């Protein structure tokens, strides 16, 4: 069947890949399967129930879940096939942001997963005139449960109306408004059509490797990134398209257990997760002691010396793989075909290390406004340190100042209720301005070097690209987060959040007393001296004008909850600077 609208994917998967476990979510400690038939039946019930509530094409419905679950998938299908517009919202934002988004989008109904989110929405509700009702997926005393909407749709009398509406929906019709988390200012509503996302799914499909002889019925995906983020959402549709079973992880904290239970073939990841996985592996390997630690460190050396990515070839590589790297693969369930990485830059060092350990990572690049994939590596065309070749249906153009611009079917319709900002984000000849700086090499691979808006100039007139320096710095086990600053100042400096857990274990080994709380550790002379060595080493790799001349350790963890990181773990630069303004002023003697 022809796939032109997003809800066509649900119908396609049932027709071509009928299965009992299309979606699997854990409830009360037990994995519960939803079949392709149940998916269609429940989605149709939601559609009919929403029509009973008076929902019409073009109406906005918000869906918010702490962790992605099957109900999200059913709601998405049910909303889209009657021409309503889904507004997925990050669970971690403030009630004030809920008020802004709900009012801006004129949300009519909201569906939330749990009590904590219900309380947040209840704070916002009195300030949102358009919001007529809130339903929950968990059963909560005194709250309307989503079963009420399913019950409203139990009668099939309106199914013809559902089908009639679905038949009128065009690929160019608006499907969803995604509010970007943003590192500054109010969230922007990115309008994506059915065609925007469908074209991206179809163009990305052949970049995902398949393993010969593996039946689609047996392929499992573990999904844990927020599905309100377009990266995970596009993959959610892509995996459905292929009939893969999608298991929704309980939480990041339970990822290890979920991986052992599911034994997935595919997972999407963000670089921070890869960094944390490697740190955990390294700590375990080096703390084993004796011969085990020696073998582990020897194997890392063999991995690093490997000339090309691929299966182990020499005797040393075979032994290292058998003794060490096979256990890495087992730790990820033993079935991983590939990890798909996006959202931020992955260090080439870690990428190489995982590739050589037999855990391929396909790094890609894109934005919410591009649905999202602009380019991605594939098994037949891969270059570590790049974000791969642009998709075949996109035209990527590097502007004279180095900015990456793109034109094609997956480029968004515009910012909701903001024509002025929409106009500003396109060139005169219709290319979307990504705000990223990069270049395409002779082999057609796209390289990202920095965010245009994040580059700054010192008072001496030298340009600094902070992301490049920050990614290099985070190779240190002592540095959890770092933000390079110095716009208009005489030199670059850095705010550093130590990896407090690693620092604690390091101090115990060295018998240093650096304290137990982040505040105590940040004030420890021993930890400061050790991180100074890391900064000094980093500076040897930088030009004289880029070298970090001073740094301060921040006395707490940067997190989404404190408003210092976006929901996709990017730095909120303005917020971090303001939060630690005293440390900033100390570095510059203000």
UniProtKB/TrEMBL annotation:
SUPFAM superfamilies: Acetyl-CoA synthetase-like (SSF56801)
GO function terms (MF aspect): ATP binding; long-chain fatty acid-CoA ligase activity
Keywords, comma-separated and alphabetical: ATP-binding, Ligase, Nucleotide-binding
Pfam families linked to this entry: AMP-binding, AMP-binding_C_3
Name of protein: Long-chain fatty acid--CoA ligase
CDD domains in the record: VL_LC_FACS_like (cd05907)
PANTHER family: AMP-BINDING DOMAIN-CONTAINING PROTEIN-RELATED (PTHR43272:SF33), LONG-CHAIN-FATTY-ACID--COA LIGASE (PTHR43272)
The keyword Membrane is assigned to this record: no
Domain AMP-dependent synthetase/ligase, first and last residues per copy: 15-416
Any one annotated GO CC term: membrane
């Amino acid at each position: 069947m022809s796939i032109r609208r997003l809800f066509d994917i649900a119908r396609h998967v049932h027709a071509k890949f009928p299965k009992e476990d299309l979606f699997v979510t854990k409830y009360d400690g037990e994995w519960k399967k939803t079949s392709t038939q149940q998916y269609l039946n429940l989605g149709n019930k939601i559609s009919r129930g929403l029509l009973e509530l008076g929902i019409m094409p073009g109406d906005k419905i918000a869906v918010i879940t702490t962790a992605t679950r099957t109900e999200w998938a059913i709601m998405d299908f049910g909303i889209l096939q009657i021409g309503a517009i889904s507004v997925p919202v990050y669970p971690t934002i403030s009630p004030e942001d809920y008020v802004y988004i709900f009012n801006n989008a004129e949300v009519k109904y909201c569906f939330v997963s749990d009590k904590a989110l219900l309380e947040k929405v209840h704070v916002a509700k009195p300030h949102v005139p358009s919001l007529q009702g809130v339903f929950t997926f968990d059963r909560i005393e005194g709250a309307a449960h989503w079963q009420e909407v399913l019950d409203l749709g139990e009668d099939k009398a309106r199914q013809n109306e559902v089908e009639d509406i679905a038949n009128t929906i065009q690929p160019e019709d608006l499907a969803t408004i995604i509010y970007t988390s943003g590192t500054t200012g109010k969230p922007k509503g990115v309008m994506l059509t059915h065609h925007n996302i469908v074209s991206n799914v179809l163009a990305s499909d052949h970049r995902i490797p398949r393993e010969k002889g593996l039946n689609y019925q047996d392929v499992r995906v573990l999904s844990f990134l927020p599905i309100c983020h377009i990266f995970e959402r596009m993959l959610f549709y892509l995996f459905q398209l292929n009939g893969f079973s999608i298991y929704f992880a309980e939480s990041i904290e339970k990822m290890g257990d979920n991986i052992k239970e599911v034994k997935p073939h595919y997972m999407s990841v963000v670089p921070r997760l890869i960094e944390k996985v490697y740190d955990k592996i390294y700590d375990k390997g080096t703390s084993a002691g004796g011969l085990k630690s020696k073998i582990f460190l020897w194997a890392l050396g063999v991995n690093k010396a490997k000339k090309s990515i691929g299966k182990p070839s020499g005797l040393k590589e075979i032994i290292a793989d058998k003794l060490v790297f096979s256990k890495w693969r087992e730790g990820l369930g033993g079935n991983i075909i590939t990890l798909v990485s996006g959202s931020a830059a992955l260090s080439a060092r870690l990428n190489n290390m995982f590739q050589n350990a037999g855990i391929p990572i396909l790094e890609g690049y894109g934005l919410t406004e591009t649905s999202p994939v602009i380019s991605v590596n594939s098994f037949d065309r891969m270059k570590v340190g790049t974000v791969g070749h642009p998709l075949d249906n996109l035209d990527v153009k590097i502007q004279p100042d180095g900015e990456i611009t793109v034109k094609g079917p997956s480029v968004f319709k515009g910012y909701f209720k903001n024509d002025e900002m929409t106009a500003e984000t396109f060139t005169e000849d219709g290319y979307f301005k990504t705000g990223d700086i990069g270049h395409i090499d002779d082999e057609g691979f796209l390289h990202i070097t920095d965010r245009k808006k994040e580059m700054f100039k010192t008072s001496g007139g030298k340009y600094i690209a902070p992301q490049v320096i920050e990614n290099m710095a985070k190779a240190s086990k002592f540095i959890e987060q770092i933000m390079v600053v110095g716009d208009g100042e005489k030199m670059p400096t850095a705010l550093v959040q130590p990896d407090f857990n690693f620092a604690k274990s390091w101090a115990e080994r060295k018998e240093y007393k650096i304290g137990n709380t982040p505040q105590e550790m940040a004030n420890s002379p021993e930890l400061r001296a050790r991180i100074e060595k890391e900064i000094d080493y980093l500076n040897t790799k930088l030009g004289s004008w880029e070298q970090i001349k001073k740094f301060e350790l921040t006395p707490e963890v940067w997190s989404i909850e404190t408003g210092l990181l976006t929901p996709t773990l990017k730095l909120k630069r303005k917020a971090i600077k303001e939060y630690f303004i005293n440390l900033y002023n100390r570095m510059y003697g203000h």
